[in-house]
Design the sequence.
């Protein structure tokens, strides 16, 4: 795991080291400033969580990082290079998994979509699909259609499809927001294990302050109108995290309080 | 569940058999002059005679060919054009008003124009059938392409899918239910127009057979032709339904 402290050094940018860097990024959509000058760096292997009141621009910031929007001011860089379009090294896990999956393709077929697109030969795909399904706990569900799966399973499937891209970065927009508490906690731990095994960099948007602290190496709080960084917290909690021990840790409680106060003040 | 299906099949069979029996009784009792209404026995005999010693098979093939060519042409054209129009917002707003103007135009109004331009030819029939049956597919495809979940296009962008791959793997399958529903509607239109064209242009087919039989007061032959036409409509609709439920298997999971 990269040292989170490195990424905190905002005043002396280190473009070569940052996986994703926002340089005075601003975005105006339809004459309205949605994001105004965000500067931020995400180190390789880091898990950065983004919180903020509804409508403050979290999704927009994530879309900028994905290359789905082009900034109207400043620049977004990926490994030092300016980003103009989405790239395969950056996978996006959308919140609305029901819309992001192809309903006419089975679980295997949905993963295959990514493998076909990266040009994997057909005879290699099946083994890779089986491996990926097993990785996200969907072994034996290859033939199921998304509509035959629960919400948690569908989101796992979307994550598996993202992993099929072999991404260096996972951008996740409230991926567990629509799931019940039990499923959500299970998926949090699964995601941490997956990320630890792949070494991917993660930017994770969430409404849930505890989730942000539980998952993150660092938590960024955005302020609304226009969206900008209002708070940065380094999460100094031991890994691997544990649903009970971590959440009872005094540091966890302190961070939760700080985030809570921030959100309260920003609304 | 299974039993109720079998029950319904049986019931519909009984109804059909009852209607045929009624027809036979009406004919036997001469409720209608046999010049106009042959019994099912005579119609059947005429049907068999047409196949064995007459050229009914050739007429049947003629109608099927007209229908198939026109329908296929309309399918290819309709889906291609619909995909082009449906996948671009600008195209939709430019072309939609024209389509709305053309669509309610009765095809029968087009026929004289087609005859004037193309003569009483196969080409005319092909044009009329294709033009008449293109609408459900064209509009279905436009609607289907316009209604593709935008999130899926973003998935495609993130994956760097090519334009062709996006059309083949995302837009087309997503629009498939609308397209197939259009194709099913078009099938009926194509059959009707095939018959009309055969009657008007004297092209080899059941339309011509029916018309000539009627003119010669050969009511049994006339009914044989009509029965065959009904059968074509029924069988093609059945085949289309089977193709649809196979291609849209994934929708069964949703229901
Ligand atoms: N395409 C757009 N055109 C104009 N305004 C937009 C557009 N997309 C988003 N906005 C506005 O930008 C602001 C930020 O939106 P965004 O979706 O990024 O918020 P968010 O923090 O993700 O909210 P939530 O927590 O509800 O998901 C909102 O006020 C929204 O109305
Ligand atoms: Mg959002």
Sequence:
């Amino acid at each position: 795991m990269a040292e989170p402290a490195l990424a905190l050094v905002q005043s002396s940018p280190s473009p070569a080291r940052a996986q994703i860097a926002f340089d005075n990024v601003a975005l105006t959509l339809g004459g309205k400033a949605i994001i105004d000058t965000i500067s931020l760096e995400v180190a390789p292997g880091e898990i950065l969580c983004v919180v903020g009141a509804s409508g403050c621009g979290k999704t927009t910031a994530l879309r900028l990082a994905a290359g789905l929007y082009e900034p109207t001011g400043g620049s977004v860089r990926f490994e030092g290079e300016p980003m103009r379009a989405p790239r395969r090294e950056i996978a996006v896990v959308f919140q609305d998994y029901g819309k992001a999956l192809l309903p006419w393709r089975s679980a295997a077929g949905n993963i295959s979509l990514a493998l076909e697109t990266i040009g994997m030969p057909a005879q290699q795909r099946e083994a890779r699909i089986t491996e990926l399904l097993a990785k996200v706990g969907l072994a034996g569900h290859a033939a199921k259609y998304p509509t035959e799966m629960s919400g948690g399973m569908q989101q796992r499937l979307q994550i598996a499809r993202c992993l099929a891209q072999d991404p260096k970065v996972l951008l996740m927009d409230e991926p567990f927001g629509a799931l019940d508490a039990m499923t959500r906690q299970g998926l949090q731990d699964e995601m941490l294990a997956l990320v630890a095994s792949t070494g991917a960099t993660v930017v994770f948007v969430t409404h849930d302050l505890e989730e942000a602290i539980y998952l993150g190496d660092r938590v960024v709080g955005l302020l609304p109108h226009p969206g900008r960084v209002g708070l940065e917290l380094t999460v100094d909690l031991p890994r691997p995290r544990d649903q009970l021990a971590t959440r009872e840790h005094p540091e966890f409680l302190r961070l939760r309080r700080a985030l809570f106060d921030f959100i309260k003040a920003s609304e | 569940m299974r039993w109720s299906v079998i029950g319904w099949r049986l019931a519909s069979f009984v109804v059909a058999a009852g209607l045929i029996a009624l027809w036979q009784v009406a004919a036997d009792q001469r409720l209608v002059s046999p010049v106009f209404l042959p019994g099912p026995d005579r119609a059947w005999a005429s049907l068999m005679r047409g196949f064995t010693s007459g050229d009914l098979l050739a007429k049947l093939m003629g109608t099927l060919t007209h229908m198939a060519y026109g329908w296929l042409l309309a399918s290819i054209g309709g889906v291609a054009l619909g995909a082009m129009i449906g996948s671009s917002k600008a195209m939709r707003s430019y072309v939609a008003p024209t389509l709305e103007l053309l669509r309610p135009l009765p095809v029968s109004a087009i026929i004289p124009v087609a005859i004037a331009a193309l003569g009483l030819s196969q080409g005319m029939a092909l044009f009329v059938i294709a033009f008449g049956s293109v609408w459900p597919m064209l509009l279905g495809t436009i609607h289907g392409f316009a209604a593709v979940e935008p999130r899926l296009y973003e998935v495609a962008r993130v994956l760097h899918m090519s334009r062709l791959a996006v059309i083949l793997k995302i837009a087309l399958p997503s629009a498939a239910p609308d397209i197939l529903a259009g194709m099913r509607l078009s099938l009926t239109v194509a059959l009707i127009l095939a018959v009309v064209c055969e009657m008007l242009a004297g092209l080899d087919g059941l339309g011509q057979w029916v018309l000539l039989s009627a003119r010669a007061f050969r009511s049994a032959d006339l009914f044989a032709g009509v029965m065959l036409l009904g059968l074509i409509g029924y069988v093609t609709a059945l085949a289309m339904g089977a193709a649809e439920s196979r291609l849209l298997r994934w929708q069964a999971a949703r229901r």
User: Anything to note?
Assistant: Chain B touches chain A at residues 149, 151-152, 154-155, 157-161, 165, 169-170, 173-174, 176, 248, 250-251, 253-254 (CB under 8 Å).
